[in-house]
Alpha/beta hydrolase (Janthinobacterium kumbetense), 243 residues
Amino acid sequence: MTTPTHASPLLVLLPGMDGTARLFDRFDAALRAQAAIDTLAIAYPAAPLDYAALEAFVRERLPQDRPFVVLAESFSGPLGAALRADPPPGMRALILCCSFVRNPRPMLAPLRHLLGLVPFGAMPGFALRHALLAPCATPQLQAELAAALAQVPPSVLRQRLRTVLESDASHSFARGSLPVLYLRARHDRLVPPANALQILRQAPGAQLADIAAPHMLLQAAPEAAAVAVAAFVNGLSAAQVSA
C-alpha cells in the first residue's frame, strides 16, 4: 500500500471475506498510476467477529487528520453502509465494489445453520476459481487468492459467511446522505447484477460503473477499476474534499 500523504485524498480500503487486505496490491498500483490518490487498507482480525464488532474495529482505525473516501469490497458492504449512516469526521463518500447492504442471496438464508457442515478448509480450488475469478482465473490470480485464504482459519470464513446471510443494513444505508459509487462486475457469480439497482434506489444520485470482470473485480480488472474510482474521487466537490 502507498504511504498516505496530506497532499492527496485518501482512499480507505475495506477487504472482502478473506479480510487480509493482501489482495489490494494490483488495484493500489493501478490507482497510483492513474491518479494521486493514496490508499490505506484495514485488515481484519482472524477472529469470528460479526459486523457490529468489525464496525467498531474499523472506526478505531479510520484517519483522524484528513478527509477520506471508503471503498468497501464485497463482504465489507454492510460496514460501508453503517459508516455512511453515521459517518465519522472526515468521511466524504462511499464506494461499494461487487458488494451489498443486505444478504444478496436471500434464498440461502435458511441454510446458515448448516454452515458447520461446509468443509471450508478443503473446498476444491476449481469451485473458488469459478465463483470468484472466472473467466479471468489466471495462475497468478489463483495463487494470490489461495495465499490470502490460507491466512484465515476455516472457522472465521464460516462465521463471516453466516454474518453475510444474516445481514440487512439497507435501512441504515438509506438514511445516509454521502455520495455513493457502485462498481458492478458484469461476470459476478456471487452478487446478482440486480443488487446494484437496490443500491441506486436507496442512494439517490449514486453512480454506477459497469466493468467487464468477475466478482474479484479489483484484482482481475485493476486498471478499469482505478479509472472509475479516480474519476469519482476527483469529481467530489472541492468543498467536500477540503471540509
In short: The first helix runs from residue 25 to 34. The mean pLDDT is 86. The first strand starts at residue 10 and ends at 14. The chain is about 40% helix and 15% strand.
